[in-house]
Task: inverse folding
């Protein structure tokens, strides 16, 4: 059975049971500084799980692309991924444990054809505050799951919230006990993982294919848990793992989701998957990381040293390093071929290729540096060549020196200190990109807002601000875009900006919370730290941005805007310079 069939069967199954299909959220949630990526299907549904009515009702279903940074270092075995698709169904104060567990088992057995005697389950053993989940146990037993295939676990295994265990949940966070379903492969238990095998054993015999979370608690300010006004169900099942179970292969990289990529890698590197564990690990890292990189880059993220851009850079560079270890051929040419097999978007493939090319040059210098300096610090590699710690680990390992937890801690401390110093130095030079607040600078600052809006209207909504600097003579604006602007595009942008200036649009601002401004469609400089209240500046019906100001009162005060220069800063970032001529 193909992964496409699994997806369609799931959606149809729950639609037939009164669930409304909802659109998945973007992988990168726009204007949400609290999270880098969507890591679970429930993330956008938190208000409705807390009791707010959902416009599509109390029963929902979708398939959510997700990314989890915590799994980057785990990738390399036969089941961990960073990017995955999550089947999800929800009950918002409607049905609860009995219906959910019955439907869950019915879907796995009747729709997907899994043998009941291959399914094992886990339930919550309880705490002093939350009772043992005997209700789920009784439901499972009534459905024919024998008691010796029902296992109890504590909060580390069978409690779910976005932050982990009840102790780790911040005030206001919601969560609850869960019940997981595991598929058993025909693999003998390996005693090195413990005397007795069980569903959460790491020997490879079991794989989790579904988790029904019963979200019924919320963390209070005093550290205790209170019952939510409604009892909710939040089910999640990884498409990739379910496909492995359905096709009875313990290796998710042997499902139809990854087979084409693995085959392409075999063809390009002249290696065979399945012959040597170390090579297999590299195959898996490349396949997962490039797939994830394509997904992230497709949503307008560009490699950088901040936020999502840093994660994207880590993925691409780690994939490139493993490509280089698999083959003597150029990692750049190899990555281009593999990436083209994963996406039809030429700009995405180009972006990844450019990053690999830059990394190849840095890597050669880094390898020489590691071999020539026995006392080298991983942070030196980061400062000199932008090589992330995770890639440094590979370089040091290949040079015969394994990095320790202390090395990692030292790196993180030095990086934090370095970033803090950079912020302080920046704050001393300018605030929000403004060198001063003279009349010329204020005009240019307002012109920057018009240019930002015009770029998005002419080039597309993938454009976002990456940086700016303004002096009394000119403005400099960095933005996300795969290539330099054509003369025609520059003229269109200039004409659109100057058209708004001639309209004499009024410039006004309101104080709002960041969330309120975001909901109204205000643009924000991603990565900027905003307080509880922000200023939302509006220029007619043309531009709306979160900004500290200052600005002119009407656009007619600005003058004529002229773009005088442009530069390509690297993969996916363009810099333009502009001046104004006051009439």
Result:
């Amino acid at each position: 059975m193909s992964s496409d069939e699994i997806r369609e069967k799931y959606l149809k199954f729950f639609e037939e049971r009164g669930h409304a299909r909802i659109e998945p959220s973007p992988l990168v949630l726009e204007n949400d500084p609290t999270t880098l990526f969507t890591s679970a299907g429930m993330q956008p549904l938190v208000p409705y799980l807390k009791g707010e009515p959902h416009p599509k009702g109390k029963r929902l279903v979708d398939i959510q692309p997700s990314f989890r940074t915590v799994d980057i270092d785990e990738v390399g075995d036969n089941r961990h991924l960073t990017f995955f698709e999550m089947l999800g169904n929800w009950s918002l104060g409607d049905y609860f444990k009995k219906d959910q567990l019955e439907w869950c088992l019915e879907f796995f057995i009747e729709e997907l054809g899994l043998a009941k005697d291959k399914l094992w389950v886990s339930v919550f053993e309880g705490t002093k505050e939350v009772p043992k989940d005997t209700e789920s146990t009784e439901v499972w037993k009534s459905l024919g799951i024998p008691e010796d295939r029902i296992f109890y676990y504590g909060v580390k295994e069978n409690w779910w919230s976005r932050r982990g265990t009840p102790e780790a949940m911040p005030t206001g966070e919601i969560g609850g006990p869960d019940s997981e379903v595991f598929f058993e492969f025909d693999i003998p238990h390996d005693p090195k993982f413990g005397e007795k095998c069980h569903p959460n054993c790491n020997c490879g015999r079991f794989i989790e294919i579904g988790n029904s979370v019963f979200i019924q608690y919320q963390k209070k300010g005093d550290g205790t848990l209170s019952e939510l006004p409604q009892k909710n169900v939040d089910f999640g099942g990884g498409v990739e793992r379910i496909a492995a179970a359905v096709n009875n292969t313990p290796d998710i990289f042997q499902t139809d989701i990854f087979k084409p990529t693995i085959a392409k890698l075999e063809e390009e590197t002249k290696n065979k998957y399945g012959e040597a564990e170390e090579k297999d690990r590299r195959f898996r890292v490349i396949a997962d990381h490039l797939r994830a990189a394509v997904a992230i880059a497709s949503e307008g993220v560009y490699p950088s040293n901040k936020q999502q851009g840093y994660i994207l850079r880590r993925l691409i560079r780690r994939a490139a390093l493993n490509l280089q270890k698999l083959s003597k051929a150029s990692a750049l040419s190899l990555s281009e071929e593999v990436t083209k097999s994963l996406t039809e978007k030429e700009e995405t493939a180009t972006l990844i290729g450019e990053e690999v090319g830059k990394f190849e040059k840095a890597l050669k210098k880094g390898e020489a540096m590691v071999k020539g300096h026995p006392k080298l610090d991983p942070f030196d590699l980061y400062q000199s060549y932008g090589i992330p710690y995770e890639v440094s680990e590979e370089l040091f390992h290949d040079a015969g020196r394994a990095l320790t937890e202390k090395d990692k801690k030292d790196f993180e401390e030095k990086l934090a200190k370095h970033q803090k110093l950079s912020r302080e130095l920046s704050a001393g030079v300018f605030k929000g990109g403004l060198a001063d607040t003279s009349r010329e600078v204020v005009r240019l600052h307002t012109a920057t807002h018009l240019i930002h809006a015009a770029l998005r209207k002419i080039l597309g909504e993938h454009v976002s601000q990456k940086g700016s600097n303004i002096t009394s003579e000119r403005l400099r604006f960095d933005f996300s875009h795969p290539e330099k602007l054509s003369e025609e595009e520059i003229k269109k942008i200039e004409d659109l900006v100057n058209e708004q200036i001639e309209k004499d649009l009024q410039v006004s601002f309101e104080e709002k919370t960041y969330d309120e401004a975001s909901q109204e469609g205000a643009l924000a400089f991603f990565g900027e730290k905003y307080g509880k209240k922000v200023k939302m500046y509006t220029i007619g019906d043309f531009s709306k941005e979160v900004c500290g100001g200052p600005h002119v009162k009407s656009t007619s005060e600005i003058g004529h805007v002229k773009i005088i220069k442009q530069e390509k800063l690297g993969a996916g970032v363009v810099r333009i310079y502009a001046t104004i001529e006051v009439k």
About this structure: The chain has a mean pLDDT of 88. The chain is about 40% helix and 20% strand.
